[in-house]
Amino acid sequence: MDHADTADPAARTAPDRTPAVECDDVVIRYGSTLAVDHLSFNAYRGEVLALLGPNGAGKTSTVEALEGYRPLSGGTVRVLGLDPGSDHTALVPRIGVMLQKGGVYPMLGPAQVLHLFAAYYEDPEDPDALLDLVGLGDARRTPWRRLSGGEQQRLSLALALIGRPEVLFLDEPTAGVDPEGRIVVRDIITAQRDKGLCVLLTTHELAEAERVADRVVIIDHGRLLAEGTPAELASGTADGSIRFSTDPGIDVAALAAAVGTGSAIAEERPGSYRLRLPDGADTPAAVASLAGWLAEHGLSLGDLRTGQSLEEAYLAITGTRSVPDPVTVDPPSGRRRRSRGRR
After folding, report:
1. Are 153 and 208 in contact (CB under 8 A)?
2. What is the CB-side half-sphere exposure of residue 292 using CA atoms within 13 A?
C-alpha cells in the first residue's frame, strides 16, 4: 500500500522528533578495512527509514551495531536512548529484528515457531492473529524448510513483530516475495509506522523503498552520501528530462527534430527513452509534440514521466549509472550530433 492509500491519514501518529535510533560519527573496522567511516544519521518514531547502498557499503555492519551485535571502533549509537552493547539485555525486548535468511528451526511450522517465540516475551502479540496478518494461516503446520522463500520472509516478519517492538529492523523484507506477498508486507510496514514505531529497513529493491520509506539514507564505502525523502532526493538530482517508453529502435533524430531545436533523446534501454529539453523549453508543448509524433508513426506511448524515480536518483548519487549519449538537434541546421556531456 502506498502512503496515499492509507485508510485514515488523520489517525497516523506524527513522528516524534526525539530520535529512536541515533548514529553519531560511527566508525567500524575489520582489521585494516574501514567498513563504516564516521557515519551519522537519526531515525524517528512514526517513520520508515530506508538505509540504501551498494554491496559492501556498510549497511549490515551499521545495523548490526544498532542491534548490539557489532562493536564500534569509534563514535556512538543509541536505540531508544540505550547503548545497544552495554544495555543489550534491556533493549532486546523493545526491538524487533527481521533477518533475510535463517534464524528458524527448519522442522517447525509457523504456528509452532510463533508460539515458541511468544513465550520469550511478557506481553507478546497473539501468534495466531499474526499468522493471519502475514497470510500464513493455511500454512501454519508446514515445516519451515518446506515453505517458499516468500512465505519464509513473511514468517520472519511475524517473528520480528511478536514482542510488540518499538523499533523494527528489517533486512530485505520483500526479497523473494511474490507480488501479492509484497502488498501484505508493505501494508504491515505502513501500519507499524502509523502506530508510532520506528522502522529501519535495508533493501536493494529501490521501488519498494520508494513506496514505503518516509526518508532515505544513502551510504557507500561507509560514508553518508545523501539523505532526505524520496521526492527530495529525486528532485535534487533531476535534470528536467522527460522519460517515456515505446517501441525499441525508433528514429530518435527525427523525433528530436519534431520536439524542437536543442532537444536531445537517448534510448537508455530497449524501448525506454530519455528526452532532454533546452533551458526555458515549454514542457507541456514538448510532451504534446512527443505524443503527436508517436501517434503519426503508429507508436504507443507508455510510462511517461517528467520527473525521476528513487532508483534513478540513487544511481546518480552513487555514480553507478551509465547511459548512451543522446542524439541532439542543433540550432539552426538540425544536424545530428552526439552529445559529449558527462555520462
Report:
1. no
2. 11
pLDDT tens digits for range 73-92: 999 999 999 999 999 999 99
CB neighbours of residue 38 within 10 Å: 15
The CA distance from 341 to 172, in Å, is 36
Alpha-carbon gap, residue 106 to 156, rounded angstroms:
13
Topology of domain 239-334, CATH: Alpha-Beta Plaits (3.30.70)
Residue 246 and residue 219 in contact, taking contact as beta carbons nearer than 8 Å: no
Contacts of 30 (CB under 8 A, 6+ apart): none
- pTM above the 0.90 mark? no
Looking up cell 551510504 gives: 219
Q: Is the pLDDT of residue 243 over 90?
A: no
298-330 pLDDT, tens digit per residue, is 999 988 887 778 888 898 888 864 434 444 444
Per DSSP, the residues of 263-279 read -EEEEEETTEEEEE--T
Cell triple for 123? 506481553
- Where do the domains of the chain lie? 3-228, 239-334
Fold classification of 3-228 (topology level): Rossmann fold (3.40.50)
Q: How far apart are alpha carbons 76 and 73 in whole angstroms?
A: 9
